[in-house]
């Protein structure tokens, strides 16, 4: 479904700030794969997501979706097939528009936006039905501006919107990181439910190791722009956060050793 | 009084255009100073050459929209700061407007214009005011309708949260260009009607127009609120009329027409500064729950999400 082939990206090349964000990264997701991505800050997790979404253009390599090379397509063109939820709960919705208007925007993903009314009675019923899944009572507040909702409510709505028109791939960028534990739990639960129901191919970045192990059928660990660990479902079920931390420790240790050697 | 009302209703179309860029797209577009005159110049030269005045007024919309297109392209494809893109188009249009008119002004006295036809059918009393009320409302309703279509919602979201709407496969560049074209089209059309109302097109008639539009939007929305689009556009229309009446009062009080630009500037400055002043805050806090609508309106002009915050506080 998603093929990332030999992709590299360097920020600020040729300057003192040069940073290799991705180094020859290759990654293949089969339809229905739910991959969690972990790694320390600056490991390149978000850069992978942004490269797939088209927000960042890679220096080298190819990104293809469903067999089609999308490397040259712009962000909004790729978005016809890519659903995204951002870390910032404010980022995924339009605050001055109402809940039903936001859903109407999501509903039209990848289709022509013409001069038909955005919200009709039939659509409203469909939106209300879809909102019930969230169990937040938002179906009774269709005409409320999204800016008045709490962060958790907005993030749950963002998730619903991102998956509303069945994208080919769903990208989740630490989408529970900015929420309190309860809300994070709710959004994680909803994520599992929606992904399972629709069989979405999903790439989820997270800082939370428990979450990374608990969710999805595959786990990837990144470090300094490379994928250093790729764990399948069977192995993943045996792993514990402690194992992952040990793995992190090994890499850090190695990096430390190199440095000591150089000195 | 009648003239002030009539002018206010015509300028309401300008205010709707400015509302579209300034509030909906969150884009301070100075093109309007130029496109207003372009509309007036185009309509005037066509009318003088015997073209049907309604057709000429329609052509003014097209020319205004083209001006908006240029600003839009400069901003989106050329990556030029929005404010600067508008100024560049506005300055360039000055020369173009002179070329269109072939001089600094074109008198329309004795020509068949939309306004002369209005006078034939409705005279120059309250009936004509009613006709213009209907015209302004038609434009308001068309804008309301457009903003609630799929395309219009995408346009609103572009001004509200660009990152989000791009992630739903909307080209924000195209939306901004569309908004700028519509806005300047409306302004060009209003310019054409103003020229026909005053009986001439003049190269200087667009100077400071952005302030007129802005004052109408801010004053109207401060008094009548901005909760939903339908309310906000109504507020904008009424704001334009109130602004024109205020100008009339100032003139009656003995001020010179040449002082009006300064008055507009001071009015806008006052609307932006007053809410920041502690005394005013205390006064309005007592008067209303939370913050005043004027405060919210002024802040929404300065920052993007402010009016939402304003509502949260109350």
TrEMBL record, chain A:
GO cellular component: plasma membrane
Gene3D superfamilies for this protein: P-loop containing nucleotide triphosphate hydrolases
Species classification: Bacteria, Bacillati, Actinomycetota, Actinomycetes, Micrococcales
MF annotations from Gene Ontology: ATP binding; ATP hydrolysis activity; transmembrane transporter activity
InterPro entries registered for this protein in UniProt: AAA+_ATPase, ABC_transporter-like_ATP-bd, ABC_transporter-like_CS, ABC_transpr_LolD-like, P-loop_NTPase
One Pfam family cited in the UniProt record for this chain: ABC_tran
Positions of the ABC transporter domain: 2-249
Keywords for the protein's UniProt record, in alphabetical order: ATP-binding, Nucleotide-binding
Protein origin, superkingdom: Bacteria
Name of protein: ATP-binding cassette domain-containing protein
TrEMBL record, chain B:
Transmembrane segments: 7-25, 45-70, 82-101, 121-143, 177-197, 203-225, 232-250, 262-280
GO cellular component, as recorded: plasma membrane
Subcellular location: Cell membrane
Predominant place of localization: membrane
Gene Ontology molecular functions: transmembrane transporter activity
Domain of life the protein comes from: Bacteria
Species whose genome carries this gene: Nesterenkonia salmonea
Membrane topology: Multi-pass membrane protein
Protein name: ABC transporter permease
Keywords: Cell membrane, Membrane, Transmembrane, Transmembrane helix
């Amino acid at each position: 479904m998603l093929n990332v082939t030999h992709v590299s990206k360097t920020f600020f090349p040729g300057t003192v700030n040069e940073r290799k964000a991705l180094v020859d990264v290759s990654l293949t997701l089969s339809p229905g794969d739910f991959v969690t991505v972990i790694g320390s800050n600056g490991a390149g997790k978000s850069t992978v997501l942004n490269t797939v979404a088209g927000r960042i253009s890679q220096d080298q390599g190819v990104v293809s979706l469903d067999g089609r090379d999308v490397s040259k397509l712009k962000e909004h063109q790729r978005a016809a097939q890519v659903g995204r939820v951002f870390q910032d709960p404010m980022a995924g919705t339009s605050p001055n528009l109402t809940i039903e208007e936001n859903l109407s925007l999501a509903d039209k993903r990848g289709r022509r936006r013409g001069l038909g009314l955005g919200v009709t009675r039939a659509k409203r019923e469909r939106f209300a039905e879809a909102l019930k899944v969230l169990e937040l009572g938002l179906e009774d507040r269709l005409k409320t501006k999204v800016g008045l909702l709490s962060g958790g409510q907005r993030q749950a709505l963002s998730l619903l919107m991102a998956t509303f028109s069945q994208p080919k791939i769903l990208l989740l960028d630490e989408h529970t990181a900015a929420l309190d534990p309860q809300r994070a739990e709710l959004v994680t639960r909803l994520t599992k439910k929606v992904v399972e129901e629709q069989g979405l191919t999903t790439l989820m970045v997270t800082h939370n190791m428990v979450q990374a192990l608990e969710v999805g059928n595959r786990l990837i660990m990144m470090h300094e722009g490379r994928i250093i660990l790729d764990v399948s479902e069977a192995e993943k079920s045996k792993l514990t956060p402690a194992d992952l931390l040990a793995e992190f420790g090994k890499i850090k240790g190695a990096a430390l050793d190199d440095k000591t050697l150089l000195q | 009084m009648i003239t002030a009302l009539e002018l206010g209703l015509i300028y309401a179309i300008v205010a709707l255009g400015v509302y579209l860029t300034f509030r909906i797209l969150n884009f301070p577009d100075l093109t309007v100073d130029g496109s207003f005159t372009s509309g007036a110049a185009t309509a005037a030269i066509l009318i003088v050459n015997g073209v049907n005045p309604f057709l000429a007024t329609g052509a003014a919309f097209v020319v205004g929209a083209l001006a908006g297109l240029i600003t839009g392209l400069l901003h989106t494809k050329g990556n030029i700061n929005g404010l600067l893109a508008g100024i560049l188009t506005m300055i360039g249009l000055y020369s173009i407007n002179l070329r269109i008119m072939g001089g600094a002004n074109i008198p329309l006295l004795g020509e068949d214009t939309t306004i002369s036809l209005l006078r034939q059918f409705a005279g120059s009393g309250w009936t004509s005011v009613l006709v213009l009320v209907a015209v302004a409302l038609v434009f308001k309703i068309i804008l309301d309708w457009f903003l609630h279509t799929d395309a219009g919602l995408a346009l609103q979201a572009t001004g509200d949260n660009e990152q989000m709407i791009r992630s739903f496969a909307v080209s924000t560049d195209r939306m901004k260009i569309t908004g700028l074209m519509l806005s300047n089209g409306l302004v060009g059309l209003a310019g054409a009607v103003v020229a026909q109302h005053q009986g001439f097109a003049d190269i200087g008639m667009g100077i400071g127009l952005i302030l007129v539009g802005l004052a109408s939007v801010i004053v109207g929305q401060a008094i009548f609120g901005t909760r939903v689009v339908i309310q906000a556009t109504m507020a904008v229309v009424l704001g334009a009329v109130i602004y024109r009446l205020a100008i009339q009062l100032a003139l009656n009080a003995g001020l010179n027409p040449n002082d009006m630009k300064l008055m507009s500037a001071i009015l806008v400055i006052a609307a932006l500064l007053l809410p920041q002043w502690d005394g005013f805050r205390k006064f309005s806090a007592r008067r209303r729950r939370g913050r005043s609508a004027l405060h919210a309106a002024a802040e929404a002009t300065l920052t993007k999400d402010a009016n939402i915050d304003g509502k949260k506080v109350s």
